[in-house]
Amino acid sequence: MDIFLDASSYLTSHGISVSEDSREDPEDDQVFTLDSDPTSADIQSDSAYTSRSSDGSVTFSPICPDTPLEEDPERKLQTRKRVLKKILENERIYVSGLESLLVPLRPLKAAAYTSQPVLTSQEIQAIFFKIPELHDIHKEFYSKLKERIEGSNNPASVADLFQQQVKQFGVYRAFINNYPIAKDTTEKCVQTKEQFRKIAEKMWVKHSKDSSEPTTTFEALLHTPVSHLTRLTLLIKELLFHTPREHSDYCQLEGALNDSNIFLAATNQKIQQKNSVRTKAQHLVKDGYVVEVTENTRKLRRIFLSPDLFFCVRVKKQAGRQPQCKCEWYIALEELSFQSQSDINLMAPGSLQMVAQSDVEGAKGRLMETKIEIYLEKKHNKRLDRLKKKLFDIESWLLINSPAIPLGLQDRNGKSYLFLLSSEYELHDWQESIERLKKHGSQAPSSPSEIQTLIHGYIGQQEACNLPLHSNLEDPEEKTLKGTMSLKIHSLSGFTQLHDVYCCFEADTNGYFEKKAQTTVLNQVKNPQWEDEVEIQLDGTQSLRILMWEQHDYRVSSEQRQKSGGDRLMARAQIWLDPKTLLSKEWKQNLVGMNRYEMSYSVRYLHQSLSQLDEFSGAPRGIFGVPISIVTYRDRSRVPLIVRHCVEDVERRGLDELGIYRISGIATDVQSLRAAFDSNPKEAVTHLKDYDVNVVAGTLKLYFRELPEPLLTDELIPSFVAAAAQEDATVKEREMTSFLSQLPDPNLNTFLYLMKHLKKVTEHEPINKMSLHNLATVFGPSLLRVRHEGLPMDVSHEVVAQVQVIYYFLSDDNISLLEQRERLGSVTL
User: Which residue, 380, 429, 495, 746, has fewest beta-carbon neighbours within 10 Å?
Assistant: First the structure.
């Protein structure tokens, strides 16, 4: 789009002459165009549309027509009225274009949360960013301007509308900053998504009241806000020119034009600055997330490598949002050197053992359990936000605490920096990249201000990158690799002498790589041929890394081995995994180059459900301390089998037992039965009769006490307590019933089952002496357990509230409600 020709044609068509020599300077035409790179274009204020006289002075020519200095005021007002009508028509066409852009927005949003979305919610946000806000602003402006123009033969005042409009230009700043992302996302989606391509290729816009509705492309409409800023500024200047100085609008219009020019000039400056940074930022060599150890504390960092600089950025994680970044420090490559393993151990001897491997494996187990919980709760859309937050917290903990492979750096002054990585591949990639750049020689660092600009450019370039390890729960199950990949290494060629070799395999979990498997060591071979078949568990995996190592001679002393650096990495390669090509379940043989070597291998992939993955994930297989939704999922039962079997045994042997549930069983026997259920539930059931019935009752109570979350849930317990304190019986019943129905299905089914059982216990009260109040006192603190988190509380008051809730559901007046729910199918046993 040529904005000068567009403006000239626009003015000429309405009887306003335009100087022909105003195109002398090519810089006068620097605006966003559909064919140009939006990141390298400028938005110009009206002052940029100038012509140059022979003496080099600058005058405004396209805006100021060749008219006498003193035009007839009446004629000026008539021309002013025509200009206002042109502005009104310009706004109508612009609003019409924005409305056309918004037509597909609602159905695209609705489809984003179905099983077959046209665009993801992130893509919709990127493409339609600020379009609704711009539409609302200009629709209101158009309506008010139309009301004033059509309501008077010669409107006295409209300048306040233009002033208000210019004040809202800040929305355009946000739109323009996002425009390159919107344009790139649109182009990508048009190329890869057929349904969106059909939408984008043909959009209807009504350009005039009498014309039929012509078509244009989505990309062309998306560009209109970029050019509209300059067009509107030109029209404000034209309106000012045809407004007499004594007119009440003149001063306000002059102020609006000045504010518009200032905004456009500032926006143009920022664009030019971004262009300069982006040009330099194209030389970014490598970046990635790591953990920095400072004073024996682990901090998440992002490190960047350019041809002459290495710098470190602080990362602030935010659930559901992009991480915030801030530069911590940087070093010129010419001043950078690596630390040896002995130096690292001397600098931070405890840094690599700060987190026990058992804690890391436990966190991975909880991660899998939480994913299953989210999968189960998606069906009912309950507690999803809290579970997603829990998933984010576990993944964040693993991201910081699981890396243990050290990368030590120091500057020429001896100041050291220690990073921890999870991948040997990444470690060697960083080392080789830095050594290669240092070998070729690095340029002297720029000035501090230029370095800061460069750093901000790198960070800005990477804003769209997600943190590794954090699960994308929006990805369709069938489009992600979740399951088992079997791998056979047939042979390695390219050796010229005998070696002791083995291979390691790393796979990523949502971008986070770690070692998954290793072959046996082949000793003194020239043409290695393995017979191994290794299995690698995949979870959101996108690529597989293969590292070939030469084993160090184990016969030498440990001191010599330490000096030599241990095993030597001979070659490495990365293989991208395509879900489409792996779904056949058949073996697929491939070749991959590894430096000067070539590897022949075969792969086979078996997609697995979450429950199958759970069996291989290392997650705790027990019952106690495991979320109830996971236990019921594994048991294929609405109520945990441990609850059912313990209840059945108490009803068979303990209804007439004095103080059942109140008198504790022998503690060692309770722990023995607990361990039996954790290791082999089916076998534990067969031995229930060998335990005292009070031990069985105590084991049931222990199960509820050790749930990671109380049965009535952390979220709903305060609501239950408040509802139980209601004095109005009708209100109390309505609220208690409402909160009960909000429990997750496994919790609700188990609670109803337990209440029915306890009611049966009270039917034998004359013998067992267990009243409703006694049972409520026993089970209240277990079922409504409150997390104090170290804060002092009045526990006696808390217990009273817990007892009130359970007593309410056990009372004669409300047991019928529970039985009715059971008959309706809330719990089928």
Answer: 380
